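Before a colleague's protein record goes any further, I have to sign it off. I want your independent view on whether this chain really folds as the tokens say. The record follows directly below this note.
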Amino acid sequence: MKKLLALALLAVVASGADAKTEKDSVNKNKPVFTVVKELPITSIKDQNKSGTCWAYSTLSFFESEILKKSGKTYDLSEMFVANKTYLDRAVMAVRMHGDVSFSQGGSAYDVLYCLKNYGIVPESAMPAPGTMTGDSLANFSEFFKALTPYVEAVAKSDAKKLSPAWKNGLQGILDAYLGKAPANFTYEGKNYTPKTFAASLGLNWDDYVTFTSYTHHPFWTEFAVEVQDNWRWPMSWNVPMDDLTKIIDNALANGYTVAWGGDVTEDGFTRKGLGIAYDVKKVRSMAGTDADRWFKLSKSEKSEKFDSLGVNAPEIVPTQQMRQDAFDNWETTDDHGMHIYGIAKDQNGKEYYMVKNSWGKYGDYSGTWYLTKTFVTYKTMDFMVNKNAVPKDIRKKLGI
């Protein structure tokens, strides 16, 4: 996912635990949420000034998988995954002579690849994010200003043959900013390597599959989603649009969460904690703003118009062609990874997915976002889920 950074804010409105509602005495259109289904998740983290949403969201997903299977709570290290992944991504960039993206972003598959091939460590086995640079949270500003030119210099080198020294130098930069990945460590009185620790978590790494929905490839086949941060080119199952939410709903109903990746640059994805697929033409009309005046409004003024309508804001009715057009014309972009863990209804009965973000206790709901099912149907890039959470008819059709 592309780099999305959280802003530092003071306390925000907290959400309750079980019988939840979210109220506002000023804006009567603000959603009042009632939980329909909520699955266990680990604590909300803060990626801060780092483009590591893919690591935070997917490790959160696997932490919930462990909770479901064993009831045990783990805090797995995002910086361990970043250390291993950035080295691999640099090797790919050099192999391709720089003709492949090298950036902070990644995909859910990068985390799965790390778990399968390198293992994982608990947060306590690595320096806490940010501590290597004297910060309290991850901050990649200086890190990538040093790392990116290094990789580009090697990748674009006119040398006839590369020495192995460049990898050692790169690893030194990674270790200096992220911390060195331990070969051995002790956790709760037992000694582990990253691989034996991953094995001890009790999950089968072959149980995880990824889904998407686009028409430039045949449905019911696999393809690699063509976005820059999908640089390992893992395959995703291509299903019709309506099956995306069918799979998510079935997963949640059976106690499985979902690692979601999608577009959050839309006007409907608010920094307050909502994701609504606004029908802009209808919103403009309801806001009492004519077309000429609407286009002269600033982004913040438009956001105020959208926010004022709240639960009464009209949404589009997405089609498969709309999804495809938005992908092809760069309107739907690969922006952010989050963790779907529940369903809630607003006061009008509309259903939303409850989604764990990695921006700390940011937003009106203390780190949780509420995305309408329409928004998710329209703006999903892809998502990862346990194959046992997929409806039986879809599994049978795919042969998984």
